[in-house]
Amino acid sequence: xxxxxxxxxxxxxxxxxxxxxxxxxxxxxxxxxxxxxxxxxxxxxxxxxxxxxxxxxxxxxxxxxxxxxxxxxxxxxxxxxxxxxxxxxxxxxxxxxxxxxxxxxxxxxxxxxxxxxxxxxxxxxxxxxxxxxxxxxxxxxxxxxxxxxxxxxxxxxxxxxxxxxxxxxxxxxxxxxxxxxxxxxxxxxxxxxxxxxxxxxxxxxxxxxxxxxxxxxxxxxx
Amino acid sequence: xxxxxxxxxxxxxxxxxxxxxxxxxxxxxxxxxxxxxxxxxxxxxxxxxxxxxxxxxxxxxxxxxxxxxxxxxxxxxxxxxxxxxxxxxxxxxxxxxxxxxxxxxxxxxxxxxxxxxxxxxxxxxxxxxxxxxxxxxxxxxxxxxxxxxxxxxxxxxxxxx
Lengths: 222, 161
Known about the structure:
Chain A contains 6 helices and 2 strands; from the N terminus they run αβααβααα. Chain A is mainly α and 222 residues long. With 161 residues, chain B is mainly α. The interface between A and B is large, with 33 and 39 residues.
């Protein structure tokens, strides 16, 4: 009887140890994999297309606004828009935005995350929500911008959701679960694609500001 | 060689376990502070739930050491698995406190990644409880072995007399 009990005790003990070994091996391996995934960095060179295109667009916006400021006899709607776009131009050039980043440098997930939050704080919260959102209000909308206002609004909404998605995806790098198909997205390295999404949102937003600056410049003379 | 490995794993795990307990208490205390919970008040049992497997294992380690439980102390497989579990928990604590590549580390402003650590609490508990369970099983087995050997010695003594 004693031998029988001893055998069973041995079986239970080694089953427990086996399970502990399996669990610890799994977590050790998954941690090394996850650690290597989240530690990947992104190299942004001075020739990075998103960076150069964004700076080029900011240059064009600046020159359009400068041209408009020299004009006389422009309508008040255009003047209002000019003032708002001037603020936007300043905001798009502030520290932390894509145009101000240090190039030829490696960026980790936190840097790219900051680039996204900076876009939300400056471009969306100040330039769009404070300055340009009057385009969404039918009572305040000047007739000169009636045609473009819906297009601008839908574009900004789309850009905002892209940036939101990229930021959420970056934040997901802080945890992982079992690698099922559904949750495996949380363990992969999405740094490069999230950077592309955020940087192209910068460019899309600059395109909107550029379009408006060209519009007031073209139709600025009454 | 087996003896050297056995002793090495045995002493490393015994030395590292108290440090891991301290690190875990630190992380959990910070987590409770952030959530405005009281570890020694209303949320004591929640706090105890994380610490208890460590306490049980440390008590068992002390029993193994002072009551000379050779069935456990000289079991190479037990010592290797214990070492692996301790290393896994060390990785959990290390990454929670020092892995700055995970974004939540920056967002909580506590210099600890609570999201990551919360995910690890369940496996941490399971592994420690499994070690304690196996330890108890091996101790009982050793106790029964000792009794058997005592009887054998007694019988041999009677025969020789």
